[in-house]
Amino acid sequence: MAAFSPLLDVLADVPDPRRAEGKLYKLPYVLLFSILAIVSGCNSYRGIVTFIDVHRHRLNAAFSLKWRRAPAHTAIRYILQGLDPAAVEAAFRRHAASLQAAAGTAGQGSIALDGKTLRGSFDNFHDRAAAQVLGAFATDTALVLAHVDIAEKSNEIPAARALLAELGLAAGAIVTLDALHCQKNCSKSLPQPASL
């Protein structure tokens, strides 16, 4: 399916955590089908398998595959948990950048940075607080450009500085942040317009 070709190309760059032998299901397709399952409302490994199983004939026809059955939920879990998060984030950033460039707004426009606490990510047994991420959202194209983890003993401020540096925004880009970032040191680290 031509619409998914750019995403499949980007997903092909994600290192496969499995051994070389016995790879019945190619990683880019497992990742793409997992994404489609999650977007359609599945929230478990078994849900992903059910999605693939229900739509297997259509997926086979659309992507020229010959899957006889969906992967087991344990295989999906092993694959997804074995992925390198940095490699997956880099792949999604490349894909978002290509979509942003196709829209003609790469490096410009307005970017909204906002931190979120991931529901259900706390671990009382290991005394670990809920995970927090800071996301960059392009408001003109409605694309999530990047995510970065917020350190457990920190807040959004250093994460925002790092994320803005990684995004490499052009001068004149509008960046919106929470009131937490209204500090002198924060405003000095943000990209400044060419002329005031």
Quick summary of this structure?
The protein is α+β, with helices and mostly antiparallel strands.
Main beta-sheet annotation: 4 strands, mixed
Helix content: 40-55%
N→C terminal distance: 48 Å
- How many strand units? 4
Low-confidence stretches: none
Order of H and E elements: HHHHHHEEEHEH
**Number of continuous helical runs:** 8
Sequence of strands across the biggest β-sheet: 3-2-1-4
Mean pLDDT: 83
What structural category characterises the helix and strand content? alpha+beta
Shape: globular
Beta-strand percentage range: 5-15%
Gyration radius, rounded: 19 Å
Number of domains: 2
Describe the protein in words.
The chain has 8 helices and 4 strands, in the order ααααααβββαβα. It is of the alpha+beta class. The protein has 2 domains: 82 residues; 84 residues, no CATH class. A 4-stranded mixed sheet has the order 3-2-1-4. Strand 2 and strand 3 form a beta hairpin. Helix 1 crosses helix 2 and helix 3 packs across helix 5. The longest helix is centred in the middle third of the chain and has 18 residues. The chain is globular. The mean pLDDT is 83.
Question: What descriptors fit this protein?
Answer:
single chain; alpha+beta; four-stranded mixed β-sheet; 8 helices; 4 strands; 43% helix; 13% strand; globular
